[in-house]
Amino acid sequence: MSGGEELLRSRGLRVTRPRLAVLDVLSAGGHLEVDEITRRVRERLDSVSTQAVYDVLGALSRAGLSRRIEPAGSPARYEARAGDNHHHVVCRGCGEIADIDCAVGEKPCLDPNIAHGFEVDEAEVTFWGLCPTCQARRSADD
Ligand SMILES: [Zn+2]
Ligand SMILES: [Zn+2]
Ligand SMILES: [Zn+2]
Fold this sequence. Notes:
By secondary structure, the chain is α+β, with helices and mostly antiparallel strands.
């Protein structure tokens, strides 16, 4: 049994070729847009609709096998690194995204002073800045 099959079964999901293909694409790492995931899945399987990829991503996310992030101004992206409450740093120049480990490691890693009676279960932290490539480009432009 492949690693993907085991993962799917361990979460009670039926093993299908599209699910295995999407898991495989995500396991290569990174934060991928649906278009990119669909393109890579089609290199593995002939006919997969974009809707089918969305359905698979939804099922994997609900099962905790993928995580969906959507930084402001960027389309939704998916990654295989799920369940560890890590954060992201996003480049204002090119949209590049990198992982930042959470110092605390579990949700919510920030406590509001006053929660207005809410039971808080998550603090969504996004760091913004310039990636090394954009910094180099900026210095070259000076
Ligand atoms: Zn950049
Ligand atoms: Zn990430
Ligand atoms: Zn944190």
